[in-house]
Amino acid sequence: MNEFEVIARYFRRSPRSADVRIGIGDDGAVIVSRPGSELVVTVDMLVEGRHFAANADPEGIGHKTLAVNLSDLAAMGALPRFALLAGALPSSDPQWIAAFMRGFDALATRYDVELIGGDTTRGPRTLCVTAIGEVPAGAAITRSGARVGDVVYVSGTFGDAALALAIEAGRVPAQAHERSSLEHRLDRPEPRVALGIGLRGIASAALDVSDGLTGDLGHILDASGVGATIDLAAVPCGDVMHSLLDGNARAVALQALLAGGDDYELCFTARPAMRERIAALARTLALPLTPIGVVTAEPGLVVRDERGETLSPLPRAFDHFG
Amino acid sequence: MNEFEVIARYFRRSPRSADVRIGIGDDGAVIVSRPGSELVVTVDMLVEGRHFAANADPEGIGHKTLAVNLSDLAAMGALPRFALLAGALPSSDPQWIAAFMRGFDALATRYDVELIGGDTTRGPRTLCVTAIGEVPAGAAITRSGARVGDVVYVSGTFGDAALALAIEAGRVPAQAHERSSLEHRLDRPEPRVALGIGLRGIASAALDVSDGLTGDLGHILDASGVGATIDLAAVPCGDVMHSLLDGNARAVALQALLAGGDDYELCFTARPAMRERIAALARTLALPLTPIGVVTAEPGLVVRDERGETLSPLPRAFDHFG
């Protein structure tokens, strides 16, 4: 298949939404934005050998490529609407592309995200998604709104994806059934779309945790000009993580929990008065929303361990150029 | 420098436009679209070794990475507004990044395009730009509006960029001064932004020629359900191309002229009655707009050579997976 056949077969589709005036197949897509709304745009690039292994399941890569972008939109409180997909591929392997698009489309369909454009070229396997979401004017949740006295919350649990990598690398032991559920967290992150929308008017600041909890929370603190103290014991995690934290793989576990990355949970801050609304949101979504600390005036992040002592140094966040 | 230092130093800047509510530095950018306007979105990915050489001037790559996207917006008749830049880089080489951003920013500044988001990661050098433009509601120029009897036009001249590559590869001889002007066409394409905007209400269909004239014109014909006949002698080209077409490198020259790619000129169709308005636009822009043929009912593209005979087979368009 040549480039145009690949595009025609796997990427081209007719516009579905009335807001897509022109979809895939022209020089650009044309979208109509609804009066009173603003558009949120985000882009993420995933590289083979860095974000996924060369032999990774292409369907999972298709899922994750879109999921990490929807996670960014969720962190802004945006409703996902459209996506563009650019990809460099080593060859036009129809099976790989078909499986990738199955994973991509399944997630897109669940969140009613319409693919409106893209680009394909030959090269080292690299996927780049641009996602476009919508918020009511002025309702986007930023990183810069945290205030002293706000409570720091996180959704879901932390460290599972990083544990999966540590287990794959042989750095910690695990049972087969544990391994599979951790790998699911790594390969099929679930963007917290409904949570992000639910947090409009509740959260004072939010972001999605992709590079590790402490590093990413640090971005909220920097952008807001504040600090925070969080309790290690309050950071929600799964059973495997719990047992490792109590055992002799504690260092690896701490690294995974606080700085491992690939969690794709939301971290947000809110005034203490929002406690009931947040608890109600957690029940509605059947998703744990856990207070883990408070915003302080003193810049910097302090993590207190199980005995109330300051953890120092903090595990380092993932750095793409480190 | 780590990833965040790279971003802070070269990519982050404060929002300039009042329509950028949130710019670089959050999970997504938030943009306001003007009432009565629609947004045009396009994405292009450039890969080292495919779209540019490993030792190519990074400033030129910065220019071209943005230029090819603005060219797509121009083909839709859109005013460029915003861009997002995702890049995989083999290392955080500050000099390379600084030079790349000089080229990118110089072009962005000329067209008042604001960088509102991005992503950086380590990987084989790959650049992906998402460009967002604006058109009055319903005014976007598509590929599908060509009608039988329309005149086919092109802007500028064709084949120079492909000739530059052919000369580099030693397939055709050239003087040093010729080589430098052809290379400029290859490395510093000028997006036809003002032309695209000027063609609103004039062109019935348009696209930008990135993969070769005949192949790309074929996309207009396919999308519009028509055919066309064009005259080889009418296709505008530079002096070097002219002399090669008349000499013994005719085959290479024909390939470059009709299917070479990297021209980044616009090809458009218009009713014959638009002739005067198009001539006036050409004068205003000081840019040749040349009629090269007519749209016909019979599907397919026919190219007549200098003696009026059908050129067959046509040189093949560039295919990324060919």
Structural commentary:
The structure is a homodimer of 322-residue chains. By secondary structure, chain A is α+β, with helices and mostly antiparallel strands. Helices cover 35% and strands 25% of the residues of chain A. Chain A has a six-stranded mixed beta sheet with strand order 8-10-7-11-9-12, sandwiched between helices. In chain A, helix 8 (239-246) packs across helix 9 (250-259). The longest helix of chain A has 18 residues, at 58-75. The first copy, chain A, is globular and about 60 Å long. The two termini of chain A are 39 Å apart. The model of chain A has no long low-confidence stretch (mean pLDDT 93). Chains A and B meet through helix 1, strand 2, strand 3, helix 2 and strand 4 of A and helix 1, strand 2, strand 3, helix 2 and strand 4 of B.
Q: What share of the residues of chain A lie within helices? A: 25-40%
**Structural class given helices, strands, pairing of chain A?**
alpha+beta
Average pLDDT of chain A works out at: 93
- Order of strands across the main sheet of chain A: 8-10-7-11-9-12
Q: Termini separation of chain A (Å)? A: 39 Å
Number of helices of chain A: 10
Instruction: Give start-end ranges of low-pLDDT stretches of chain A.
Output: none
Biggest interface found = A-B, 75 and 75 residues
Count of beta strands of chain A: 12
Q: Could you give a short account of the major beta sheet of chain A?
A: 6 strands, mixed
* Oligomeric category: homodimer
The whole-angstrom Rg of chain A is 20 Å
Estimated share of beta-strand residues of chain A: 25-35%
Shape by Cα distribution of chain A = globular
Query: Helix and strand succession of chain A?
Result: HEEEHEHEEEHHHEHEHHEHEE
